[in-house]
Amino acid sequence: MTGPVLGETIVELSGVNKRFDGAVTANNLSLSIEQGEFFTLLGPSGSGKSTVLRMIAGLERPDSGRITIAGKDVTHVPPWRRNLGMMFQSYAIFPHMTAAQNVGYGLKVRGWPAEKIASRTAEMLELVGLSSHGGKNATLLSGGEQQRVALARALAPQPAVLLLDEPLSALDEKIRRTMQSELKRIHGMTQTTFIYVTHDQEEALTMSDRIAVLNHGVCAECDEPERLYRRPRTRFVAGFFRGCNILQGKVERDAAGNPRVRIGGAEIALSGDGIPGDGPAAFIIRAENLHLDDVRTYPIRFQAKVLEVTYRGTVVDYLLQLADGQTAVASATSRSLAAPGTTIMVGLAREDLIALQG
């Protein structure tokens, strides 16, 4: 028999519902996750992402709905019969064991022969860059090294899917960034399906092939990272990612029936798909798409008053008040483009004004 093929559905949730003490953590949730994908469940605290992961793992049972893994209905199958690996927020390292013994523990429980355990353990330690640390007591390793041991242990039994529940949340920023790159590298080398839970937007954007953004147990949107970041369809997703301005406008038609929107004190012709009907409508503009320099090169120009200038290291945020009283943030790399209290012109490309659908 052959295993699942890359691109085929490996995990599917169909109409899954779950409540805890009246709180909805999954509301008619349906998701399809492909073999070999790095798939992330992203959302704020209480959005249901960890509960969804636990239902896939079999640690929680849905109130209704269906969960399949590799085409098999596992809704009522216990965790140990699902061929899954799991990494938790805590390292869950056995303190009385060496790094190698930790990695090989699951294989020993499964009854693997000693020589095969030794070979697979060495392979996994090399994969995570800890070949020279196998004989060390696990408690003597750094936090990042312990997390690598936990990852190697989870991958050692060759699970069909690896579930990761905010595994980097306990690490400091520098180590967390390193581990993000390591996880992506290891995912690419093993081609194991990763289902990852996080509330960190940057983490999700950095590592994922696709992201499902959850809100109160509902999937607000599911798409590739760049599309979610640059062209969100819903107000919730637009507001969840940093640097997204949500502005109210009024859509009207001219005598020829061509749609236009009045927004920010400007009148802008609309074209393409997703144009809302006449009347009030919400639009988004990403902060980096509001330009304070070379304004004349952009077809859309706003007049704005600079309220605040905030230095954020790699970027500078300019808080602007537009002519219709709405505020927006423009991000640039220079802090000398405008001073608080000044009135300036701001440029925008037509394709960077995006209508929200919900």
Number of domains: 2
Oligomerization state:
single chain
Strand content: 25-35%
Q: How many distinct helices? A: 8
**Largest sheet strand order:** 6-7-8-3-9-10
Distance between the termini: 45 Å
Average pLDDT across residues? 92
Sketch the topology as an H/E string, one letter per element. Answer: EEEHEEEHHHEHEHEEHHEEEEEEEEE
CATH level-four homologous superfamily name of the largest domain: P-loop containing nucleotide triphosphate hydrolases
Shape: elongated
Report the count of strand segments.
19
CATH topology of the largest domain: Rossmann fold
Percentage of residues in helical conformation: 10-25%
Give me the Rg, rounded. 25 Å
Derived structural class = alpha+beta
Domain ABC transporter: 11-241
Pfam family, one: ABC_tran
Protein name: ABC transporter ATP-binding protein
GO molecular function, one term: ATP binding
Describe this structure in words.
With 358 residues, the protein is of the alpha+beta class. It has two domains: 9-230, Rossmann fold (3-Layer(aba) Sandwich), CATH 3.40.50.300; 243-355, RNA polymerase II/Efflux pump adaptor protein, barrel-sandwich hybrid domain (OB fold (Dihydrolipoamide Acetyltransferase, E2P)), CATH 2.40.50.100. The protein is 23% helix and 35% strand. The protein contains eight helices and 19 strands. A six-stranded mixed sheet has the order 6-7-8-3-9-10, with helices on both faces. Strands 13-12-11-14-19 form a five-stranded antiparallel sheet. A hairpin with a 4-residue loop joins β15 and β16 (316-322). α2 (99-109) crosses α3 (114-127), α2 runs parallel beside α4 (143-155) and α3 crosses α4 (143-155). The longest helix has 18 residues, at 173-190. The two termini are 45 Å apart. The mean pLDDT is 92.
